[in-house]
Design a protein that fits this description.
By secondary structure, this protein is mainly beta. Helix content is 5%, strand content 38%. It has seven helices and 57 strands. The longest helix has 10 residues, at 455-464.
């Protein structure tokens, strides 16, 4: 899907002969009139198309105004310039007027190539991990345009400094297509208000003063992205901010600019009770800013108990005993200083029982599963104050019980399932008058289904709570609401040969986690080709141990225009015994509905090991039930078997004949691939969908080739139809060997493995079943 993001071409301008390294500088070369940017200088409206332009992208005093409520994005036409170097730098000044409404915010700037087809570096604005309320952070990702939320995935990496609205920050980004492991600046790098030392730290792997840098951390397997030539930097209207002084060049020095210190957040005065704590915030924009807090007696020093954060943007004073005045002094790397306003702390010393002020009213929150939420109820009174949170679930609203470890004024929750819905309140206490308590307001939390969960999240949700979050069989669906799930088509069983009218196929994500798509009332010839990416919207339930999404109609299935990709099954042999002994365990649930591969499989006609006799064939226009083991049938008590359930129906009432009828059932397969289902929760089941999924020929020997370019090693080999291959690597030809990739070459005609970190000496071995 085309991303609605503006492009600003990095042009090689001959007029800049005195500074030959500069490729583009908007304010110098294109002074804009106030108003819409259409038709002015280099900028133009990129999205929507010219026929639908709303003319709401504005420039004011050479500042491009980004507005998240508008739809225009800006761009510049390309003049065909191609960077002769591998490394491109760009910078801009950003002044954010409003924080993003969602914690994860979104990207508003990116590097692209001049064909507007590949995105290699995205810059994000979000409020993740901020320590000062009302601030934001900037982050970078190399290829992802969204935030990943699961362990093991790579979300955008945030620059570790809180930024305030209403002040200017200089942002410098670079992208280097030289992916050699020896290149410290390979792919994307982000600096905020950097000094020259910050740049030197990045290329020398640290070791000096300064606030530093961050790299984009996600990777890609696309050769087009790995070798992209940067020629554009673009901005979209998905942030409320002003963008100015856009510069692109081939060196860090040419794009970087500095500003004197300025405070965006000043410390605030307040009234407090003795024995409690006070927190003061001061956020400034400065080059490698350092802070030093003062009170009326001079500079403060951390003691780890009463004074914390004396050299940061957050000062905490514990065990308050006297009134005082506090302020912060910021110093930049060049020695420029700036003093904040004074914050007057007024202390109430009279002994006071704990109480919750009238401003602490009940909060009634509604949140989606897989999001975070927070209740905060702060008591007043003589300290120290102690807190304990209590919770009662929705189905037992009066059964409050303490939440272990929740002993602060704030209760932070991450909703991993539907067990957090209910009521919450906190009790505050102190030792005044022999011990006093106060009850906070009763808050409530309603949980809704996740709007766009990953497939793995749905599996984990079912594994954690299989009977009431995703009700089994024909019970209520996932709270009755729609969710949107995306994945690649991997399997179609060929249902409906007996007058039935429904379509059913399976999709999985890039990690191999699958879900069943069930479309009632439609002829089963609607299945997109294997390898097609689709987004499906509908209610979700668990049917026969399978995660199932049920779109209401074909319009609820959005088929991507992207090219069909090779589909990689999971290797299931390591999980085999865990499936058998614990069908409803997490391994089983997480693998259900996924395309898996078993190797060295023996077939039998019954559960007790009946042999497959010569002439035993798959049934015509029906299904065939077989039983399989890994290794010959000699397991005790006849329990270690799976069902192989082979659909063989004609599709579309005979419109498409099945490929199995009258074909010989094998007695042994080197490899068997199909969808795994813990069907009816008693016996694991695998459902192949193609004849080539039954690999009966022994793997043939094959040659492999190794090539290396720009620090990337590529191994290629011809594959046998239906076979899966693994790549083993070692730093010594005698081993030890490490499995670096599995499931390669199942669908494509040739096998390929790309290694972005080949090392100085590395050996590769391709293994078949």
């Amino acid at each position: 899907m085309r991303k609605l993001l503006a492009m600003v071409t990095l042009l090689a301008l001959s007029s800049l002969s005195l500074r030959a390294e500069i490729l583009f500088q908007d304010s110098t070369n294109y002074p804009y009139l106030n108003g819409t940017i259409e038709g002015q200088g280099q900028w133009y409206c990129y999205s929507p198309s010219p026929s639908r332009q709303k003319h709401d992208a504005y420039a004011t005093n050479n500042v491009l105004i980004l507005n998240s409520t508008n739809t225009d994005a800006v761009a510049t036409p390309t003049n065909g310039w191609v960077n002769p170097n591998t490394l491109t730098f760009a910078s801009f000044s950003i002044n954010v007027s409003d924080l993003p409404t969602k914690t994860n915010g979104g990207y508003f700037c990116e590097f692209q190539d001049n064909n507007d087809t590949n995105d290699v570096c995205h810059i994000f604005l979000d409020t993740r991990d901020t320590s000062v309320p009302g601030t934001y952070r900037l982050g970078i990702a190399n290829y992802d345009s969204t935030f990943a939320v699961l362990p093991g995935e790579f979300p955008p990496t945030n620059f570790p400094v809180d930024l305030s609205t209403g002040v200017n920050y200089t942002v410098v980004i670079s992208y280097d297509i030289n992916l050699s492991p020896d290149n410290p600046l390979r792919t994307g790098t982000l600096w905020v208000n950097p000094s020259e030392q910050d740049y030197l730290n990045a290329i020398n792997s640290g070791g000096g003063p300064g606030q530093g840098y961050v790299y984009g951390s996600d990777t890609t397997s696309s050769s087009g992205l790995l070798n992209i030539d940067i020629s554009q930097i673009g901005f979209s209207p998905y942030a409320d901010a002003g963008i100015s002084n856009v510069i692109a060049a081939t060196t860090f020095e040419e794009v970087n600019s500095t500003n004197p210190p300025v405070f965006g957040i000043q410390p605030q005065s307040g009234t407090y009770y003795s024995g409690n704590s006070a927190t003061f915030y001061a956020v400034a924009s400065a080059v490698d800013a350092t802070s030093q807090w003062y009170d009326s007696n001079g500079p403060l020093v951390d003691d780890g108990i009463n004074i914390i954060g004396s050299s940061s943007n957050t000062l905490i004073i514990n065990n308050l005993s006297v009134s005082d005045t506090y302020y912060d002094v910021v110093t930049d790397t060049y020695g420029n200083t700036l003093q904040s306003s004074n914050a007057v702390l007024t202390l109430i010393t009279a002994q006071t029982q704990p109480f919750f002020p009238a401003s602490e009213t009940p909060e009634n929150l509604t949140n989606n599963v897989f999001t975070g939420t927070e209740f905060t109820n702060t008591a007043l009174g003589t300290g120290p104050l102690y807190y304990q949170w209590y919770f009662a679930p929705t189905n037992v609203p009066t059964a409050f019980s303490p939440l272990p470890g929740q002993n602060s004024a704030a209760l932070n929750l991450y909703l991993t399932d539907f067990t957090s819905a209910g009521q919450y309140f906190v009790v505050a206490s102190n030792s005044t008058f022999g011990g006093s308590i106060a009850f906070g307001p009763t808050n409530s939390l309603v949980e809704l289904p996740p709007t766009s969960p990953s497939i793995l999240q749905l599996h984990l949700l079912a594994a954690a709570q299989p009977t009431n979050s995703l009700d089994q069989e024909y019970g209520p669906t996932l709270e009755g609401n729609d969710v949107t799930v995306g994945g690649y088509v991997v399997y179609s069983p060929g249902y409906s040969g007996s007058g039935e009218s429904y379509d059913s196929y399976f999709i999985q994500d890039a990690s191999g986690n699958g879900v069943d798509v069930y479309l009632a009332g439609y002829d089963p010839t609607n299945t997109p080709p294997i390898g097609t990416y689709v987004n499906v919207t509908g209610p979700v339930d668990v049917f026969g141990g399978s995660i199932e999404i049920m779109p209401a109609n074909i319009a609820a299935i959005i088929i991507s225009n992207a090219p069909v990709v090779p589909v990689t099954p999971k290797f299931a042999n390591p999980y085999f015994y865990q499936f058998i002994t614990n069908v409803l365990g997490s391994n089983s649930i997480v693998a259900s509905s996924s395309l898996i591969t078993l190797t060295n499989v023996y077939f039998y006609t019954n559960k007790t090991g009946g042999a497959v006799e010569p002439g035993y064939v798959f049934k015509t226009n029906a299904n065939t039930s077989l039983y399989i083991t890994i290794g010959q049938y000699h397991f005790p008590n006849n329990t270690n078997y799976w069902t192989c359930y082979q659909y063989g129906y004609n599709r579309g009432q005979g419109a498409i004949l099945n490929a199995f009828g009258t074909n010989q059932v094998p007695s042994y397969c080197y490899q068997l691939t199909g969808i795994y289902l813990p069907y009816d929760f008693s016996s694991p089941e695998i459902e192949p969908s193609r004849l080539v999924d039954y690999v009966t020929n022994p793997p043939a020997s094959f040659p492999a080739t190794l090539s290396q370019s720009k620090g990337v090693a590529t191994v290629n080999w011809p594959v046998q139809a239906g076979s899966t291959y693994s790549v083993l690597t070692a730093t010594n030809v005698m081993g030890p060997w490490t499995n670096s990739a599995s499931g390669l070459g199942f669908y494509p005609a040739t096998g390929a493995f790309t290694d972005n970190k080949p090392g100085k000496a590395k050996f590769y071995q391709i293994a078949s079943p």
